[in-house]
Amino acid sequence: MKHVPIRMCVACRRRRPKGELLRILVTEEGFVIDPSGKRPGRGAYVCPDSPECRSEKRLRRFAGAKARALAEALAAYLGGEDGQGKDLPAG
After folding, report:
1. In this structure, are residues 22 and 48 in contact, taking their beta carbons and an 8 Å threshold?
2. Average pLDDT, stretch 12-16?
3. Which of 21, 67, 69, 91 has the highest local Cβ count within 10 Å?
4. Is the pLDDT confidence value at 87 over 60?
5. Domain range holding 67?
6. Into how many domains does the chain fold?
């Protein structure tokens, strides 16, 4: 049986398999959404299927003053409130 890495959502603190979460990179230019999960750099994870995890208030714990920009970037990437935007890669 293959090992499945577990990661924690920075907004809701739920632990899930890495493939179910969306990775966000922190760079000098700002936040970069990394759907492949393989780009180099310091990353954090959020639940892409949970609108509560994309709210500015929940992201403030991780992003601080830049939480609004991150929430807007996630909403644009995932397609607003319902999360029916771009298809996420499987596993």
Report:
1. yes
2. 95
3. 21
4. no
5. 6-78
6. 1
